[in-house]
Specification:
By secondary structure, this protein is mainly alpha-helical. The chain has one domain. 95% of the residues lie in helices and 0% in strands. It is built from 3 helices and no strands. Helix 1 crosses helix 2.
Amino acid sequence: MNPPEEYMNNNLGQLREGESNQEITKQLSSDNSISESNSLDKVREILFGSQVREVEKRFARLEERLVKEFTDVRDETRKRLDALEIYLKKEVDSLTERLKNEQTERNAAVQTLSEEHRNIAISLEKKFAQFDEKTTNSQRDLREQILNQSKSLQDDLRQKYEEILALLEREAQELRRDKIDSSKLAALFTDLAIRLNTQNKS
């Protein structure tokens, strides 16, 4: 007896026990569907089983190749990234070294300029001090010369004054001694005036 017949006999027994026709129909449909599904699976296996297994093998080989290629690409990418990292590190080190050298050169140039500026400032201060000292010395010498000339002129004037006083004293004594007349006295004063005029011109 095949499965459908067994199922029908079982369902008839259940119907005797009081189940409805609708429930029996549902069970029969469900069992028929299961049986048909199993039959279809067997047919599918007979018709397409080898092709399905071949396709699965191809998919497995393709997956294996994809995994291998992905691994190769990943390794190659890692190598390139490592090489790029090394290159960039070398470039950064080179730029850093160049910047350090340029900074050192600029610092040396700035230090040299500062030293030159300091030397120029010191030289200017020395020259200003020397000029100030020369000016002070010149002013002092000029004042001394003026003072000496002033003293010399004062001495000359004092000497001339004393000579004139002495001359006047002598002339007065002579006048008193000789009791010269007014004409002789006039001549004496005229001669005295001429002498004074001559001395002032000299």
